[in-house]
Design a protein that fits this description.
Helix content: 10-25%
Largest sheet: 5 strands, antiparallel
Strand content: 35-45%
Number of helices: 3
Number of strands: 11
Structural class: mainly beta
Radius of gyration: 17 Å
Strand order of the largest sheet: 3-4-5-6-11
Order of helices and strands: EEEEEEHEEEEHHE
């Protein structure tokens, strides 16, 4: 299966493995940022988690990389690894469109700029920019959310075609703020 699993490895300048982390899912996008202000950059990775069928944001310390992501569903737990040492791990809710048409939502882009993280999540596999964009501060507190215009129009199209039984509401969009922190940052 193309979405399972992913390995993140930190190598020395000579190619020696300094640390590795295994994730039950796919990690497609990454960036580096000093989120905790200690002068060392953390690894930010965006993708999806198979066991949760949800987009994920993972933050790792490149100087303390190890283990495998812990999964609630034992069918997705990687065997033979200690628990992962994530600095943070978040899961993102799925829109009604995604729940109706796809088994997962997944990362579309991830970037740290200035003092915020921009994480875009694709909600429809075949429709470019049908996404929800999340904005975080360096403490990984949610500071904003955008429901793309393309996702809004797709919702109207699917409603008109009878594939969705409701109009898009502000309440439905606000429910996308209900992130699940599997590991909260300690900084």
């Amino acid at each position: 299966m193309s979405r399972y699993p992913d390995q993140v490895v930190v190598l020395s300048h000579t190619g020696t493995v300094l640390g590795e982390y295994w994730h039950s899912g796919q990690l497609s996008y990454g960036d580096l940022a000093d989120l905790d202000g200690d002068g060392n950059q953390e690894i930010l990775l965006g993708g999806m988690s198979n066991g949760y069928h949800a987009a994920t944001l993972v933050v790792l310390d490149p100087h303390d990389l190890g283990g495998a992501s812990l999964e609630e569903n034992p069918d997705y737990q990687l065997q033979g690894f200690p628990p992962g040492r994530e600095k943070a791990r978040l899961l993102f809710p799925r829109t009604c469109i995604n729940r109706r048409l796809h088994p997962y939502n997944w990362a579309q882009s991830l970037a740290f700029s200035g003092d915020r993280i921009k994480f875009s999540i694709l909600e429809h596999q075949q429709v470019i920019n049908a996404s929800v964009v999340y904005y975080f501060d360096p403490r990984l507190s949610l500071i904003g959310l955008e429901f793309s215009d393309r996702l809004r129009s797709l919702h109207r199209e699917l409603e008109a075609a009878g594939q969705l039984d409701h109009s898009l509401t502000d309440q439905e969009i606000n429910e996308l703020r209900n992130l699940r922190y599997l590991t909260r940052p300690a900084w």
